[in-house]
Amino acid sequence: MKRVDVLIVGAGPAGMAAAVAARRFGLDVLVVDDQPAPGGQIWRSVETVAATARGAILGESYQSGLSTAEAFRACGAAYEPGTQLWQIEPGFRAYLSRDRKAWTLEARAVVLATGAQERPVPFPGWTLPGVLTVGAAQILLKSSGQIPDKPVWVAGSGPLPLLYLTQLLRAGGQVAGYLDTTPPGRLRVALPHLPKALRAAGDLLKGFGWATTLRLRGIPVIKHVTDVEATGKDRVEAIRYRTADGKDATAPAELLLVHEGVVPNIHAPLALGCAVAWRDDQDCYVPVLDRWGETSQSNLFVAGDGAGIAGATAAVLRGELAALRIAERLGRTDAQAAETAAAPLLLRLGRELALRPFLDALFKPRPQIFAPSDDTIVCRCEEITAGGIRAMVEVGQPGPNQVKAFTRAGMGPCQGRQCGYTVTRILAAAEGRSAADVGFYRVRPPLKPITLGELAGLEQEAVP
Amino acid sequence: MTRDQADVVVIGGGLHGLSAALYLARAGKGVVILERAWVGRHASGATAAGVRTLGRDLAEVPISLEAMDMWHRIETIVGDACGFHAHGQIRVAETERHLTELNERAAKLRQLGYAHEEIIDASELRRLVPALSTHCVGALVARRDGAADPHRALSAFRRSCEAAGVTIHEGCGVTAIERQGADWLIRAGEQGFVAPAIVNAAGAWAARVASLIGDDIALGMKASMMIVTERLAPLLEPVVSAVGRSLSFKQSGQGTLVIGGGLQGKADLDTQLSSVDYRELAKGARAATDLFPCVRDVRIIRTWAGMEAKTADLLPVIGPSPNAPGVIHAFGFSGHGFQLVPVVGAIVCDLLVHGKTERQIEAFAAKRLMARKAAA
Amino acid sequence: MFRKLHEPAAQAVTIYIDGAPVAAETGESVAAVLLRQSPLWSRMTPVSQSARAPYCMMGVCFECLAQVDGEASVQTCLTQVRDGMRVERQRGKRSLFA
User: Fold this and answer.
1) Model confidence over A43-59: pLDDT tens digits?
2) Do C51 and A235 lie within an 8 Å CB cutoff?
């Protein structure tokens, strides 16, 4: 069976940086990623797009990923794109799959750099064709050079919708309106966190610049939107929204893009039994990590947005820190040298993280996200509604796993990636418990659906 | 410490505990179920829910046949059909040698007066299971057998228990049991329950419970693994197993393929956590694709390993404690307890209410698994 | 739906969606191409035959599943187009009988 020193899962900013850093110590490195090219989400298709007109539309932060990708390609790490990790056992034994074939691999250390996903936001009609996340629309612009063909409605909160709208306008797209779901008073609540953020003031000013651009272009910006609905038969045909003053409005729509923040991908750490902690300030779980990014499992690290949402620069720094610690563990450097090398990285990481408390407070998800109406589908895969979940809470205090067993919520291929948080919050509200107390689904492998034939083929593998 | 009085305390909120509680409550007893996690947490929630008389140990056949009659009218017992279907259970022979084995089994059963297992040839096999690989030469079939939906069964038994007045305490794990006059005092943390009778239906933990009342019963554990696939259009109706393979292959009411067969993963009784061993499970996937070649590209959505009790002879423990008054054991079903659920509850009720049962349970006596004590 | 920006340098390929030829470009995903089609739906769910289309474009929602070159339930957002590729929309539960 194949053995490597370091298995890195994910070829985004953190994964690439970890690979480059690990290779500097002469470690034997394999990077796997389910995408066809390196870049993760933020630098999708950066190798082919950065130097084009599309790259200019996407902007400097995007284009800057090219140098990281080039360094990654040149560093000597083995790289297997289009490859899915579906299980990992302590020790470590990783189970991988590509092109209908599954195999196993041993690694002395593992870095999970699987990034983040958009926070699932269930609302009536969110499963209709034509409802996509803002991130999805941005990926379509990056990888496919495509934009909505009619004026698009965007509903959400946070920096990403503003960034995408700016890029879309640059590309010649049209915007029907921006439904800003940021509740009133958030800025006041967030301001006390601002002094720490002044070191990263550049990013902040950029954010306000985007919002101004929209208004100057005459795009309707409706503030303090509390609820959104999409209606239509077999696709979105109209949207309905409500504002904080209780007024409703409707509009025809063919595409609705939604975004309510980003949460770390915790499936792989959970499946591996890593300790995770609920963060009230971020409304999500985050793996418990030391300053090197090591989890509660020895030699298992998380780097990048999977460690906590912080952006590409922080991801690169976290990748380098993880690689440093692994190099020390595997005897390629000593503790003193690792500390010395880590010091400037930690300093820069601190600066990157300085803006987070302000942004977390400013864009804290509105409570309506966690309290969908009874008829809203919560589990997209198994088509279970919020009402179906609530009906389970008649007696006792069922947890997510009990609810999963009896309603089938969480039993579909996405394994709770789209419904887990919602189920947890519905149970918490119905039972008068905290989300941290309720917990999350027990995440079991396979992390991605493999075929019976692929699993059967594992039997053929030579036993070492 | 609180003190609740009852006629019977049932330890274990799985299907066997629920069944015992249901019959006892309907016989007029005040019943309390103590379940450490939640109803159906372990074996009952992890079962493939095969409803099978086929291939049982001869000692189990009488009660299994009675249970099968009960499954055919399960709606009258628990108010819900529990997703039960009777499309048959089939044990496939891939070679002539396997078929000889099956013929011998069928002959033996006929000798004993049982007609429920029938040999069929390749063409009847093809008719019953069109998706089966054409290399299979024949099979043994129990046509009244089938499968059910484990969570619908759990919900139905639970609802029936509650309607009959059973009190169910979840999150209530038994920590100590002691005599209190003619009664038992069962402690679960700060809660206390007093009753003259106990039913030990604690599954993989039943030996630990038994030791609390002074019975030292040898008990092992199984961590059988299961695969559930994406939903498919109707592919097969019967439940299929094969001689010489660890395979149980069926399609659920939702259309998913549910593939078990007893391959073992890993489990820990103390943490109550189990995990799948994929290199072992690969054998099950291989058996499935060998017997049903068309499923090679079907996607696996979930896998798990359940946790259940296993006895040395793979027969359950059903019957009164040899030492402790008022204690009935009902555990150790070793991977084939689901089908017996409706009859075992009736047996437990017989024993507690009438002090005896007409049903044949001699082979299940606890004593056989207990070390002989030297004479004082 | 979506439309492509004018990019003359891109390399054109042809894929087949439910048998009909569709223009695509190397470097884009099958899901992106599906989102340029009419009707917009690309899948009917196995549970209730509801219409769905790609939602997250990053592999965490499983709405973009389609049959690609004979392999069923492939995440098309993770699959790059290839000249001559055959894509079939899945309608409800898959049948394994021909």
Assistant:
1) 999 999 999 989 999 99
2) yes
Token pair of A172, please? Answer: 């010649």
User: Is residue B195 one of the residues assigned to a domain?
Assistant: yes
**Confidence at A240, pLDDT banded by 50, 70, 90:** very high
Alpha carbon of C11: minimum distance to chain B alpha carbons (Å): 32
Of B304, C44, B154, the closest CA to residue A383 belongs to C44
List the 208-237 stretch of B: residues with Cβ below 8 A of A.
Answer: 227-230
May I ask the CATH architecture of the domain A371-438? Orthogonal Bundle (1.10)
Q: Which domains does chain C have, with CATH numbers?
A: 12-91 (3.10.20.440)
Position A396 confidence tier, pLDDT thresholds 50, 70, 90 = confident
- Closest-CA distance, B292 to chain C, in angstroms, reads 10
User: pLDDT tens across A411-428, in order?
Assistant: 999 999 999 999 999 999
Q: What residues in B contact C72, CB-CB < 8 Å? A: 297-299
> Which residues of chain A lie closer than 8 angstroms to B278, CB-CB?
87, 95, 445, 455, 458
CA distances from A43 to A312, A335, A373, A461 (A): 9, 33, 36, 36
Cα angle: B149, vertex B152, B158; to 5 degrees = 135
- Tokens coding B6: 């009852």
- In this predicted structure, the answer to whether residue A464 has a pLDDT above a threshold of 50 is no
Q: What is the pLDDT of residue A186?
A: 86
Q: What is the pLDDT of residue C69?
A: 96
* Residue B230 at interface with chain C, using a CB cutoff of 8 Å: yes
Task: Please identify which residue in the block is written with the tokens 């600066």.
Answer: A351
Report the CATH superfamily, name and number, of domain A2-117+263-333.
FAD/NAD(P)-binding domain (3.50.50.60)
Residue ranges of chain B with per-residue pLDDT less than 50? 375-376
Domain limit, last residue, from B305, B331, B359? B305
- Specify the CATH superfamily of domain A120-260: FAD/NAD(P)-binding domain (3.50.50.60)
DSSP helix/strand/coil, B95: coil
Residue A210's pLDDT band, with cuts at 50, 70 and 90, is low
* Residue B295 contacts C where some CB pair is shorter than 8 Å: yes
Which pLDDT does position A204 carry in this prediction? 60
The answer on pLDDT for A214 being more than 80 is no
* Calpha distance A360→C70 (Å, rounded): 45
Question: Would you say residue A193 has pLDDT above 90?
Answer: no
What average pLDDT does range A15-22 have in this prediction? 98
**Model ipTM value:** 0.96
β partners of residue A63: none
State the best of C5, C67, C76, C93 to mutate against chain A, taking most chain A CBs within 10 Å: C5
B228 contacts on A by Cβ (under 8 Å): 411
Task: Tell me which residue in B286, B298, B300 faces A446 most closely, judged by beta carbons.
Answer: B300
Whether residue B183 contacts residue B327, with contact meaning beta carbons closer than 8 Å, is answered with no
Instruction: Compute the mean pLDDT over every residue in chain A, rounded to the nearest whole number.
Output: 93
B residues 16-55 lying closer than 8 A (beta carbon) to C: none
Cβ(A62)–Cβ(A46) below 8 Å: yes
Rounded Cα distance between C28 and C30, Å, is 7
Q: What is the pLDDT along chain C (98 residues), one digit of tens a residue?
A: 999 997 655 689 999 999 999 999 999 999 999 999 999 999 999 999 999 999 999 999 999 999 999 999 999 999 999 999 999 999 999 999 85
The letter for the amino acid at B40 is G
Record: contact B40-A100, CB cut-off 8 A: no
C3 → closest Cβ in A35, A146, A418: A146
C4–B contact, CB cutoff 8 A: no
Task: Answer positive or negative: Cα dihedral of A114, A115, A117, A119.
Answer: positive
Give dist(CA B192, CA B194) in Å, integer.
Answer: 7
Asked if the Cβ–Cβ distance from A147 to C27 is below 8 Å, we say no
